[in-house]
Amino acid sequence: MDPIINAVLKPKSIAVIGASTNPEKIGYKVVENLKNCGYQNPVYPINPGAEEILGYKCYPNIKDVPYVIDAAVITVPAKFVPEVVRDAGEKGVKGLSIITSGFSEVGDVALENEVVSIAHEYGMRIIGPNIIGVLSNSDNMNASFTNFLPLDGKAALVSQSGALLIAMDAATYTRRVGFDKMISIGNQADLDFADLIAYLNEDENTTCITLYIEGIKNGARFMEEARKCTKPIIALKAGTSAHGAAAAASHTGSLAGSAKVYEAAFQQAGVSQAEDLNDMFDTTLALALQPTMKGDNLLIVTNGGGVGVLATDAAEKYGLPLKFAPEEVQAELRKHMPSFGSAKNPVDITGGAGLEGYYEGVKYAYAHPWVDGLAVLYCETSVTNPQEIAEAIYNSIQESGATGKPVAVSFIGGERCEAAMKWLIEHDIPTYNAPDLAVKALASLRKQNEMLATSHNAPYKPTDVDGAKAREIIAAARAKGRDALIEVEAKHVFAAYNLPVTPTELAKTEEEAIQLANQIGYPVVMKIVSPDILHKSDAGAVKVNLKSDDDVRNAWKVIMENSLKYKADAEIDGMAVQQMAPWSTEVIVGSVNDSTFGPTLMFGLGGIFVEVMKDVTFKVAPIDENTALNMQSEIKASKILKGARGETPRDQKALANVLAHYSYMIYDLKDEIAESDANPVIVYEDGKGVAVVDARIILTKK
Ligand code: COA
Fold first, then answer.
1. Which helix (H) or strand (E) holds 125?
2. Most ligand 1 atoms within 8 A of CB, residue of 47, 118, 144, 214 to mutate
3. How close is the Cα of 682 to the center of ligand 1, in Å?
4. Residue 399 — φ and ψ, nearest 5°?
5. Which atom of ligand 1 is nearest to the CA of 102?
6. Is 66 exposed, middle or buried, given 0-12, 13-18 or 19+ CB atoms closer than 10 A?
7. CA separation for the pair 320, 438 (Å, rounded)
8. Which ligand 1 atom lies nearest to the CA of residue 99?
């Protein structure tokens, strides 16, 4: 555990620099909150004009305090912050929370950098600036200007928005989602999400880390720490509209957007992404209180057929479709329900079910090895008491003898149900007021388990690649002053990463074209190579299916004429002669260098699927072949690859190999490749491989 971060989040003493005697001021509020929330360690208000504040002796300067100080909370105006940070450094303070606003968020990056560099000079770390402060139930510490600590619990919230943190602090009581810590990180000038994930992973009072994110500064570090984290992380990402699309030069660039890349990065790093604030609270409740779900067998026990159906629908919607329970499970459950109940799944113990039905049914089901996760639903009835049902559910799980699998509950009814739900949550059972939410919570626990299974894998690194050769080709193009490769060069780079490109060579003369066509083997395709003609087909500068030397001679003449008609002074390097691949299913593979997460791979089906439907998916590079196979299932049209309507499945394994190698190429060459496309890539029948027909690489600006 980082001792400096620990000093800010669990300080043994706190100075408040800018503490005030004026109850209207933030500097007063922080001292008042520390006092009122029961912080037990010494508090030293610092203010040049006051003797004491709220019973604490006040010092004119932090350097005047004759005791050791772990952390300082800063509430002086921005222009005084550098000076007081230096004082704190000289005093030997370990870490700082800077509440003050007026730094990079209003454009004053220089002031912010100055403050960080002074802090680092003294080995101090900073949370903030521009924050509400830090709250921790386990230390009764409210070092913030929001009035009270959150409902006590096992989650930790790290929020980039201060206002939202204040609102969530209050909402923890109405939502009944408990947090041990709430940390406002503001501008992340120094400590960022990655640092706090690493810290909270080792914090004994945290079981689940909840993040409210507007932007991540260093995507690679975020992913690295999230991957290392053994506790569930849930993130709500604000600002999901696409950005930068218009400026993007390649096809992939226009399809990428920060939202999709964030989504991919979260999934790859094992972070559950919340849809909205409600979902963030609901999922936090489940992830904080329950273990992950190790298999797909979800069993639903209900006293109401209707809510059972709603839960069944939700199970399918959230990726956990119900299966009938095995016969032995059904036979045992039947013993605890009237003859008109149903023991299949959902298990309907019927409206007449009382304590015994819930107790025995849940106890047996929870303990049975077939069941990986249990949803228990209850509709309030006139013959049952919700509190007694809640206790029966709790006791049945406690007494089942089983552990390590999740349960989620839904109570639907009035005030008595509300009270019973509160009781269940206090006993660590996530309970919701709608059946779909209980099922969704279990689906999140299942997804979390699946993500954790792959997120810890070592990064993919193939051995059958020749990065040096690719760099030589790129260097030669740069030497000619180009910032994009011509197709022939791009294909050679692809080939260096063992991508199955169709052979393509540059012919400078008609005779060379004939020679190359014979080497490659007929039929061939010919295209103009000119920096002035980017849309070759529009210019009539592509000829396909050339079967003989005469065809090549004719094509040379026609392409040359058309090109000069298109642009009379076009600079012409020659013509690309390439093997004509037989046609089959077209896909597109491409990449962008995302400003947050770096090289990012895109995949989709070609033609209308990509142009009109924008049916594409992203992964932060590199990815291994398993991830590449999963990636193929993520697009809506994935059935086409799997063999829709009796067609033979496509060679998904070979495609996975291409995706994985491509991802490694863009990762390895991240300093060189800004954007790239392989469009189209032809995927043949299973076992018959893949051909990369066209290649495009746009270089980074140097
Ligand atoms: N050492 C110690 N105390 C100092 C000081 C120094 N070098 N310089 C000033 N002070 C004292 C002041 O005398 C004052 O105390 P007083 O009321 O007893 O006179 C106190 O620090 C605060 O200074 P003041 O000038 O009154 O500022 P303020 O309270 O109006 O505002 C901030 C200070 C930090 C609250 C304000 O600048 C700010 O940033 N507000 C926004 C904070 C925020 O919303 N953050 C979260 C965003 S999500």
1. strand 125-127
2. 47
3. 64
4. -95, 5
5. 39
6. exposed
7. 12
8. 45
Closest CA to 183 of 192, 174, 170: 192
Question: What is this structure's pTM?
Answer: 0.91
Hey, whose CA ends up nearest to atom 41 of ligand 1? 101
- The residues of the chain scoring below 50 in pLDDT are 243-255
CA 250 remoteness from chain centre: 24
Residues 131 and 191: their CA atoms lie apart, in Å, by 12
Q: For residue 213, how far is its CA from the centre of ligand 1 (angstroms)?
A: 27
Length of the chain (residues): 702
Using DSSP bridges, classify how beta strands 208-213 and 298-302 pair: parallel, antiparallel or unpaired.
Answer: unpaired
Q: How far is the CA of 53 from the centre of ligand 1 (A)?
A: 15
Q: How far is CA 74 from CA 46, 96, 566, in A?
A: 10, 7, 66
CA dihedral 674, 679, 682, 686 (to 10 degrees): 40
Which atom belonging to ligand 1 lies closest to the Cα atom of 83? 7
- Which atom of ligand 1 is closest in space to residue 165's alpha carbon? 48
Q: pLDDT digits over 289-310, tens only?
A: 999 999 999 999 999 889 999 9
Q: Could you tell me where the beta strands, DSSP code E, fall in 31-136? A: 43-46, 52-53, 56-57, 71-74, 95-98, 125-127, 133-136
The pocket around ligand 1, CB under 6 angstroms, is made up of 17-18, 20-22, 25-27, 46-50, 75-77, 80, 84, 99-102, 130-132, 162
Distance of CA 164 from the midpoint of ligand 1 (Å): 22
What interhelical angle do 487-496 and 467-479 show, nearest 10? 160
Give φ, ψ of 464 to 5 degrees. -90, 50
Condensed to tens digits (0 to 9), the pLDDT of residues 419-456 reads 999 999 999 999 999 999 999 999 999 999 998 887 77
Rg for the chain, CA atoms, rounded: 31
DSSP state, 150?
P
Q: Are 420 and 389 in contact (CB under 8 A)?
A: yes
Compute the distance between CA of residue 207 and CA of residue 212 in angstroms, rounded to an integer. Answer: 17
